[in-house]
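Predict the 3D structure for this chain.
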Amino acid sequence: LRLGALTRPNLDALDTNLKNFAAKKVDALVIDLRATPATNDFATASEFAKRFCPKGKPLFSLRKTAAKQEKSFTSDRDPSYEGLTIILADGDTAGAAEALAGVIHLYDKALVLGQPTAGRAVEYSDLKLPSGKVLRIAVGEAVLPQDQPLFPNGLKPDVPVEMSVEDKREIFRQSQEKGMTPFVIESERPHLNEAALMSGKNPELEAMEAAQRTGRSPEKAALRDPVLQRALDLVTTITIFQRK
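Done. Predicted structure below.
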């Protein structure tokens, strides 16, 4: 489930998807926050969090540094989903998305996979300068329950998984047409097996020789999303363990 921007239209889309998940009895969910643009709209982020966090629990507080004020957000509704949850995050996960990831991680004991978040879960104020430029100043920070800070170090993953920003963005671009399946499931390719060994053949070598005869260059390594793949592996492992 790739949330995208934390906006009201996307919140409505999330509700629609969660209703469908309930009908299909989905009991494991991967929430991908690696493509969520940074925003300091913590009120809307809290609405997203309410879909996954227990009713009556504090979500996070927006603590003003100068005025010593604090605005708290609390879940006032029952969650729409309570199953196994895995969160994907990285350095592009910033602002209110970090607070969302942090509170789901806290209450749902959700595993966070990927890389540390940006550490910018702050509220900004814009000051227009005489030159026409705008100076953006952090005036408050989001703090999780039990005074757990997100600024400036961000949220650390439970399972670190490396992936280049370039590969991720190219996969996200292509996935708008292809979906995510091609980037986590390998297509069948010629490989050496027992039958080939008994017949004295090597399908891998034969495929390479055929490519050379036709003048085709060796195929480039296919793009893979190791973060999502690791999440799917974890879901499979946990599900097998719970059934035993």
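Residues 143 and 149 are 5 Å apart (CA to CA).
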